[in-house]
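Weekly modeling sync, notes
Attendees: S.R. (lead), two postdocs, one rotation student

Agenda item 3: backlog of single-chain predictions. S.R. asked that every request posted to the team notebook include the full sequence so nobody has to chase files. The rotation student volunteered to paste the first one in as an example of the format we agreed on. Action items at the bottom.

Example entry:
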Amino acid sequence: MKARRNKKQVPSFRKLLKTSKVKLENKLKNKQFKQQSTLKKYRKEQRKLRQAVKDAASKNPIPLEDPKKIRPVKRLEKEEEEEEEALPLDMMDEDDLQLMKDLGQRASFLTRDLSSSEPLHGKKRKHERIIDKYEKIPRTLQTAPEKELIHLLPIKDKSGIIPQTREKPVIDSDRDEEDQKEELELEEEVIEEPVRELTIEEHLIERKKKLQEKKIHIATLASAILSDPESNIKKLKELRSLLVEQDPDVAVTVRKLVIISLMELFKDITPSYKIRPLTEAEKSTKIRKETQKLREFEEGLVSQYKFYLENLEQMVKDWKQRKLKKSNVVSLKAYKGLAEVAVKSLCELLVALPHFNFHNNIIVLIVPLMNDMSKSISEMCCEAVKKLFKQDKLGQASLGVIKVISGFVKGRNYEVRPEMLKTFLCLRIKEVEVKKDTEDINKPKKFMTFKEKRKTLSRMQRKWKKAEEKLERELQEAEASESTEKKLKLHTETLNIVFVTYFRILKKAQRSPLLPAVLEGLAKFAHLINVEFFDDLLVVLHTLIESGDLSYQESLHCVQTAFHILSGQGDVLNIDPMKFYTHLYKTLFKLHAGATNEGVEIVLHCLDVMLTKRRKQVSQQRALAFIKRLCTLALQVLPHSSIGILSTTRTLMHTFPKTDLLLDNDSQGNGVFLPELDEPEYCNAQSTALWELHALQRHYHPIVQRFAAHLIAGAPSEGSEALKPELSRRSAVELFETYSMAAMIFNPPVEFSNSKKKEN
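Predicted structure, as returned to the notebook:
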């Protein structure tokens, strides 16, 4: 029973955990109050004890009759003064004074000090009685203040749970009061000193001086690290500490300078391999001093690089959340500038260090920023990803970025910027032949086993073979070149993710603004799509065109994609794309004839794929109809668009020689030309002529005039009407871009006449 009672008295750990925060605070306050009251009582008793000792040592000890009603010393002195003042000595006669003196010389009860408890004749045992009187004074026990207990985690034993406690040290309140007084005195002294206010000019001069000192400090640290990275790797931490500069005058500028400096330092001192963490066995083995120094350098570099990336990520988060920190050194307006510099550094590291540690972490940071509301940050990130795709030969980094982008687009329900998907067009997967079977791919060379050597080779041949294989292995390790099989595997996986993203958008988000980017991507990578998907893909594209929900430019992308599919592996399929020819022929006059020239470049690409590259599948009637409509269109558009269209017409006349009948005025066919008919096969284009070329000969642009005269002459390759090499050797798209008027410049420049005015 006793053991149980003891257990109940001691609070268990669970009960302490269940106690609320308010109760704990109240308990703490009560304990503090009790502690203060006990300290006050203790000091009071000590004062009384000291006073009693003083009185005992003096001649007139404190009377012991009623110790509770002991009068303070000060009060006794006051009463004695009052009694002395009460005696009217000035009013007394000389006889009375003499009588008082005589009485004072006699020892009697009346003249004795009534406050004293001594007998009249007690001088011999005076010392002993003083000690006895001191012993009779009531005493109080010296009670120490209660010590507060801190409850620790309990220990579980065989007998049960044993609670653990520890005493909390008591702080001397007297010392605290003295310290507070000293601090208040110092504060008063500081406040008393007047602070001189600086003018704006003085403030700017002081800021410039501070900034110059910080720049020199940053440059000194950076140059020391660059001169000997292995020895001065610890200075990276010192330089990184400046990312939390607290001086409000130069904080933003210094942080930006440090971000750029560290980014350039990491680009320079980072090795060309990935640093892996050491195993326990490697840590325990003894190594040389040079190896140990290299290990310390690598560990320090990786840790500082990690902290640097975390700092950049925090800067971007602070800008996104737009929350002021407690230090309040950087204003909300400065957050965007810091975030832009941080994002720029992340983009540089993404492109420069694709092989190094934490590259996937940088990708995860950059990809969401590609869809940021800020246009400058979004463009910066998209350009960095494009640059990475263009320079990535192996495909490892590209695969990581494609995975993150695909997951991000799906997670946002395809509501992202089209620029994110346009980055896919920069992937380097042109030279990979995905259509080949795995058997045709060059497999890595296999070395002969010992049993095979023993069966087929002699002893001397086996010896030579062994040496040869050893040499080949060393060469392979020295070259460190990636095999074609690994490249093919990475590129195939990348393309699968790209096509899955494209097909999801075609299926679920057909009215999304991402559709032009999807169709453009399909047009580029159509030759790499598996033949099994061709039929379904063409049906989807035709359905999109017929739905009428697409813009003119999007419908042109559909046509371009369809013919890219058919011009590659689609040659094997027996598919007649007549509906796509009809759609393009019908919508040619919907081209924008203004300054934007939207769609002209896509039309030129489509005509090249549909007519020139598929010349064997195109009939003469279809070619005649397209040539006639293109010449009519050339009259309506801007000069550089006319040059591109006339260049395409010249190519078609060379590809289909019998189309020169359109240059003859006499009708060569039966029936009447029907320009309003939307079917190119049945509009009787052979019954008309290219009268538009005569109008184009009088065009204000000299290059348009030259092309028109060249086509009227039958597009000869030699003679006076032949084109110059700079015009004949360029494609239609190149000529369209060369003579573009987007910069508001006339190309070729207008020649000024030097005619002199006649003097009258």
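Discussion: group reviewed the output briefly. The chain has a mean pLDDT of 78.
Action items: rotation student to repeat for the remaining queue; S.R. to check formatting next week.
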